[in-house]
Amino acid sequence: MPFPRKFQSLLEIERGDVAVPDYMWMVYAVCAVTKEGCGWGGWMIEAAFYKSGASHPTSTGDALLPAADEQHCPVCGRETFRTGASVRMVPSEDQKLPREPGGDYEVAPTEYED
Question: Does residue 49 contact residue 55 with C-beta atoms inside 8 Å?
Fold first, then answer.
């Protein structure tokens, strides 16, 4: 399936093209705010930060990066409750995959259409 050519520059982004978080806060959230909630529970991104060296208007002074941090249930879409279970995640120095990409799945070349 070809992708729209106007998005080619977005689809071909590599790690060196974006600010990579130096750390992220994850929170365990549950879908239990309303009677209609589905009871789902799982980890969500609370915030992603980049140490840019400049001072930013955040609690840490680090740059807040765009992230999928909307606290909505992935099952039913309702608002979730952020529990007291949270953890700061720091990327590993070794970012190599345990296997080569495409090892367990087929990799097709990206095609574009105008």
Answer: no
Cβ–Cβ < 8 Å for 30, 44: no
Question: pLDDT digit string (tens) for 36-58?
Answer: 999 999 999 999 999 988 999 99
C-alpha to C-alpha distance for 29 and 43, rounded to whole angstroms: 6
Task: Please give the structure tokens belonging to residue 86.
Answer: 């949270």
CB 29 within 8 A of CB 83: yes
Partners of 86 in the β-ladder: 27
0.85 exceeded by pTM? no
Higher pLDDT, 64 or 59: 64
Beta strands in 12-102 (DSSP E): 23-30, 41-50, 63-65, 81-89
Q: 49, 58 in Cβ contact below 8 A?
A: yes
Structure tokens at 85: 């279970």
